[in-house]
Amino acid sequence: MGDTPQRSAHAGTGGTPVATSHERPAGASARVAERSGNPGRPDGGLGGGGGLPRARAFGAERAFRGLTLAAGSTVLIVIAAIAIFLIAKAVPALRANTESFWTFEGWFPNDNPPKFGIGALAFGTVLSSLLALLVAVPVALGIALYLSHYAPRRLGNSLGFLIDLLAAVPSVVFGLWGRDYFAGPVADLSAWLNKYFGWIPIFGEGPYGSSILLGSVVLAIMVLPIVTSLSREVFRQTPTANEEAALALGATRWEMIRTAVLPYGRPGVIAAVMLGLGRALGETIALALTLGSTYAISFNILEAGGNSIAANIANRFGEANDTGRGALIASGLVLFAITLIVNITARAIIYRRREFTESAA
Amino acid sequence: MTTTLPTHRPRPPAQPATLRARRLPAYAAPAIAVAALLLSAGLVYGAGIGGPVLVVVVGALLYLVGLFVAANAVEGRRSARDRTWSALIHSAFVLAVLPLASVVWTLVSKGSERLDANFFGTSMNNIGARDANGGAYHAIIGTLEQVGIAALITVPLGVLCAIYIVEYGRGRFAFTIRFFVDVMTGIPSIVTGLFVLAFWVLIVSPWFNDGRPGFSGFAAALALSVLMLPTVVRSTEEMLRLVPAPLREGAYALGVPKWKTILRVVLPTALPGIVTGIMLAIARAAGETAPVLLVAGGGAAINFNPFENNQSSLALFVYQQAGEASKYSPARAWTAALTLVALVLVLTVAAKLLARRNRLGR
Amino acid sequence: MAKRVEAANVTAYYGGFKAIENINLTVEPKTVTALIGPSGCGKSTFLRSINRMHEVLPGARVEGNLTIDGQDVYDRDVDVTAVRRMIGMVFQRPNPFPTMSIFDNVVAGLRLNGVRRKSILEEAAEKALRSANLWDEVKDRLGKPGAGLSGGQQQRLCIARTIAVEPQVVLMDEPCSALDPISTLAIEDLMFQLKDKFTIIIVTHNMQQAARVSDRTAFFSIEKTGDPGRLIEYDNTQKIFSNPTQKKTEDYITGRFG
Question: Could you say which of A33, A66, A96 is where a domain stops?
Fold first, then answer.
């Protein structure tokens, strides 16, 4: 990170003086520096030779280069801007809050005095996402393996194409389906679970309906195609040579998968799961339609209720006044932070593993 | 370890004495399945703890156990494991197909109810709770305009960003950008919505909107472009990396400057792949509800101007109709959902076909 | 530890395409047999038919009789994994498992067979690596990734992995084609030592290599592209390279064809 500002400053001077040529010596020295920094790739003025008239071409080269650099920097600017603007809007609401933002279980930012807390929402977000992954990931990996290594090739390809399409289905569709057609079966399941497994605390008393269980299962069904599609791609890229090596040692198909396919695909699978987790954490509409919108921390996943940060924003945005919006933005900031942590951790794991395998290869 | 010379041991466990192995007969698996189902039915109904669904679930578990035990007894542990995992993997597939098929079936059967000209020709303006008519014309316009503007913003930005990463960027700074593009992929859509709400709707736009927050289709487009940007960058980046080095070197050798090489040689070569990535990004953006809900404001009337006043979108329309009390709104919601899915799928399928036809040397 | 391989009327297909036809050949125990011939003549297909790796490819199948000391490899009651444990294989390109250490690579086959005791694994790994002439080069870094070795070392690692399970027959599919001359020499030396214990069948494009390492040589050829490969001549290596019976063999050996 140390040389980042230095580099961008240098590039900034490279971007702006496109037309002017009065700074010739500086430009020339920059060119030399560039050349020496990059011996492998010939830049604009190939061939050297001080007398060639290449100032114009060089200007275009620098302009283009500056343009791409500016575009590249936008990514950093946008991420920084997201944090800055969310904080700017969240702080006044947080100041006005008369209860603890972290522990208060309730959401009354429009009242006077405003009272709201993130605790129950964050809890619901994490709980529903983890439950969804718990259901979706094993199934998704199973399907991915089925498509890549068990199904006949043509069938696997067409089904994989279908799964890719399902991954593109908007979440509002899953939410609508979950609320209107899946709530009934899940309520029946809830009653059954409570009757026979009620001694486990998470399978508590009803009323059943829009519960964490329903939300999580809908989330799981939604995340399933995404994780499947990515993992299948990873599994398919296992080098045939490694698969054959395992088979030639006398491995059964499952043993071949365990020795060659799974270890090879592990970073990719981690990435897929993390992406699925990111989707689940940030999923708004499907949960807004299937969760019960209550503000209590409860491990009873069967009881109608539950909430998530994103669903709460969608549900409460319409009625929000200025402080209300600020409060919702503050909750969004927390969600942003959670997803950022999850993402950076995941990417760091993948990058490290990738470097390991690449250096080894 | 180094000093002990390998002593003569009997045949290592790795070597089978014979190639022949005892195998479960072909009828064994179905027989176990039937037995498991019967046993399960007996258990479930005998104890009175559930219905046919439970019978199937318990039956499947019993089948797995039975298969493992039988295979273990006859064929040995390794083969038993192989069979059981195989059965598990197949059942994962069946398990997932059921709900997904149900979603698709509901979508098509419910969605076709209102698939008429009225739906595509009218808005929801002046449509009361007891009115069976009303359509998504305004929402379709909103979706197209918002996604179009978002693409106009994102495509040049994303492609240039990818060019920087692949062609110019070196060292830490390029790595940082790459890293944060990856991180950006995971930013939830609702957060981008909140960002545009805070930045554009509440802070910037009131300056030229008489101090009132400016909910508009353009704001939604901004939020969607934040979502699309990382997708476009990543796919473009991948495609640029696939362009063979000799193509570039050939151009350099002719004295073509680097920027011209990129624009005239590299980009055209990678173009089909880049277009595929852009189309997939658009398809995803078109299906987003949350950001539009926060910054476009919704609205029942037709509004062609994305820069002023509220606009709706198909996804938002579905969500809003889902929340209505009218008995006609579910049909409208499902038909809009079907329209939305059709739009998204057409884009996705076209993108995938394009990718399949123009695969750069893989 | 070594067994006789007999092929009778072996024919192999890729889907509708007939790759080899009616191959009849007997490989004696504790010998090195080289399969030579022009590209696409089916020698690799034949090799892969011996340990039933051919059928791994979709649509591929084998007809005819292939026996190991009289046991039919393709019998209905035969366990494929047992066949492959008995007949080891070394591939054209070195293919160590990229995520495994050197040690784990060598003992991968033993682990598959349920050997868990660390002392046994260590002993077997050392023995296999010594036999593959690799022990001295890697003994201090057994925990490092196998993919970090040079190409020739990787190939010897793969050989060590193959012989660690002590197979009866070792098949080698152009094991040196991706290697430099020095590594090639090391592998050829290795084959010489290994034939004390194993029956070795090697496919090679390099006729000098065939002449150097093998006791017997089989020459495969095709009439033209699209025709199935056939066995033209099978004899002592010396005879094939000095005084072949068939005109085709002579043309190939002397470089007039292929």
Answer: A96
Say whether pTM exceeds 0.90: no
Average the pLDDT over A356-360 and give the result: 47
Answer for the pair A248, C53: CB distance below 8 angstroms, yes or no.
yes
Q: Are residues B202 and B311 in the same domain?
A: yes
In the structure encoding, which two tokens stand for residue C143, read together?
């925990």
CATH code of the domain in which A324 resides = 1.10.3720.10
Same domain, B125 and B97: no
Cβ burial, residue C246 (10 Å; 0-12/13-18/19+): middle
B79 and C114: CB-CB below 8 Å? no
Domain that holds residue A25: 4-96
Residues of chain B with pLDDT under 50: 1-11, 361-362
Q: Which residue of B has its CA nearest to C87?
A: B15
- From residue C20, alpha-carbon distances to C53, C206, C222 in Å are 15, 21, 9
34-73 in chain B: CB under 8 A from chain A? 49-50, 54
Question: Contact B20/C122, CB-based, under 8 Å?
Answer: no
How buried is C179 (Cβ within 10 angstroms: 0-12 exposed, 13-18 middle, 19+ buried)?
A: buried
List CB contacts of B207: < 8 A, sequence separation 6 or more: none
H or E segment to which residue C169 belongs: strand C169-173
Q: Give which of A305, A295, A159 is closest to A232, Cα–Cα.
A: A159
A249 with C88: Cβ contact below 8 A: yes
Residue B286: φ, ψ to 5°: -65, -25
pLDDT value of position B192? 93
Domain limits for position B42: 28-112
Which residues, other chains included, contact C119 with Cβ-Cβ below 8 Å and sequence gap of 6+?
none
More confident call, A61 vs B143: B143
- Rounded Cα distance between B204 and A281, Å, is 29
Q: φ and ψ at C206, to 5 degrees?
A: -100, 110
Q: Are C71 and B19 in contact (CB < 8 Å)?
A: yes
Q: Indicate if B161 and B306 belong to the same structural domain.
A: yes
Looking at the 3D structure of chain A, how many domains does it have?
Answer: 2
Predicted confidence at residue A168, as pLDDT, reads 86
Task: Please check whether residue C139 touches B, CB under 8 A.
Answer: yes
Partners of C81 on chain B (C-beta within 8 Å) are: 78
Kindly indicate the confidence band of residue A357, based on its pLDDT and cuts at 50, 70 and 90: low
Domain at C5-253: CATH architecture: 3-Layer(aba) Sandwich (3.40)
Look at residues B112, B138, B166 and tell me which one is the last residue of a structural domain.
Answer: B112
> Do B270 and B165 share a structural domain?
yes
Burial class (CB in 10 A: 0-12, 13-18, 19+), C111: middle
ipTM, two decimals: 0.90
The number of folded domains in chain B is 2
Chain C contact for B17 (CB, 8 A cutoff): no
User: Last residue of some domain: B90, B112, B134?
Assistant: B112
- Is B13 among the domain residues? no
Supply φ then ψ for residue B309, to 5 degrees. 65, 170
Contact B188 A339 (CB under 8 A): yes
Chains that touch C (3 or more CB pairs under 8 A): A, B
Average pLDDT over residues C128-155: 89
Tell me, yes or no, whether A82 and A117 share the same domain: no
Q: From the CA of C94, how many Å to the nearest CA of chain A?
A: 8
